[in-house]
């Protein structure tokens, strides 16, 4: 189906692109809800199939010592519930250790495998470049997630000779059209999605991650203010809310094989 997420600065022209499947890779449970839950709610409302891959179990997260023994189970429960609020049921885990994620060839191979299996039009992940304006966006696991996914997308996903065991298992090479980044340095953000109608769903999903929020009221104020500021940067009408992305065309009219 076609889904309109256009903005004036964007390289992504949804009027001519068909978006049927989106695959999101993030480092920890809750990353996707902070970064893109409004856009995801809009996608699923329009009939787009969205899948998540959480690369670590989030086992080093949280604030309450009481939660330590069941933190992995707790965060998985939170992510399942939060995902359901924005229309997502398909969740995968790589089960890497929180704080130890690296773009190793084993991690990259597993990313390639999932992309080839789902064959999305958009892969969304965390940015591999450090954001000096807000260092919290650049947790080492965030950077590693972005680097691993970027390396997987080019050239491995589309190279029939990369990880040949995947092709032998029936997972053929695939040319991904679009790569979307969250947690990007502001200077690189080039696409804004109006999520005004989905702010409440986004905040509801974030609130589910209760183990990660020592001050829910402050969190909500910051998120709302950031969304409105993004809307202003996008040039949307006053008071509109937006999520911001760095969108990269991987395979399109401007690209040719191998370049």
Mean pLDDT: 92
Number of helices: 7
Helical content class: 25-40%
| Secondary structure tally: strands | 7
The gyration radius over C-alpha positions equals: 18 Å
Instruction: Name the structural class.
Output: alpha/beta
Q: What does the largest sheet look like?
A: 7 strands, mixed
- As a percent range, the share of strand residues is 15-25%
User: The CATH topology is what?
Assistant: Rossmann fold
Q: What does the model show?
A:
By secondary structure, the chain is α/β, with parallel strands linked by helices. The protein has a single domain, classed as LmbE-like (Rossmann fold, 3-Layer(aba) Sandwich), CATH 3.40.50. The protein has seven helices and seven strands. A seven-stranded mixed sheet has the order 3-2-1-4-5-7-6, sandwiched between helices. α1 links the parallel β1 and β2 (49-56). α1 (31-45) packs across α6 and α3 (105-118) crosses α4. The protein is globular, with a radius of gyration of 18 Å. Keywords: Zinc. This is PIG-L family deacetylase. InterPro entries: GlcNAc_PI_deacetylase-related, LmbE-like_dom_sf. GO terms for molecular function: hydrolase activity, acting on carbon-nitrogen (but not peptide) bonds, in linear amides.
């Amino acid at each position: 189906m076609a889904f309109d997420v256009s903005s004036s600065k964007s390289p992504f022209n949804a009027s001519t692109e068909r978006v049927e499947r989106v695959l999101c890779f993030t480092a920890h449970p809750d990353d996707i809800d902070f970064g893109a839950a409004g856009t995801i709610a809009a996608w699923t409302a329009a009939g787009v199939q969205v899948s998540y891959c959480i690369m670590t179990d989030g086992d080093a997260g949280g604030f309450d010592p009481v939660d330590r023994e069941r933190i992995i189970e707790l965060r998985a429960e939170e992510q399942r519930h939060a995902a359901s609020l924005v229309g997502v049921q398909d969740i995968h885990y790589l089960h890497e250790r929180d704080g130890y994620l690296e773009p190793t060839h084993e991690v990259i191979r597993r990313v390639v495998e999932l992309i080839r299996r789902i064959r999305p039009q958009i892969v969304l992940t965390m940015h591999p470049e450090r954001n000096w304006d807000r260092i919290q966006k650049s947790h080492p696991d965030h950077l590693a997630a972005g680097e691993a996914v970027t390396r997987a997308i080019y050239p491995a996903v589309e190279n029939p000779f990369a990880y040949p065991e995947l092709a032998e298992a029936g997972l053929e090479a695939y040319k991904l059209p679009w790569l979307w980044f969250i947690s990007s340095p502001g200077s690189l953000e080039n696409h804004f999605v109006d999520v005004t109608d989905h702010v409440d769903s986004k905040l509801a999903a974030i609130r589910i991650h209760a183990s990660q929020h020592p001050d829910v009221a402050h969190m909500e104020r910051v998120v709302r203010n950031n969304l409105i500021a993004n809307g202003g940067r996008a040039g949307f009408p006053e008071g509109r809310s937006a999520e911001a992305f760095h969108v990269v065309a991987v395979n399109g009219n401007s690209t040719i094989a191998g370049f």
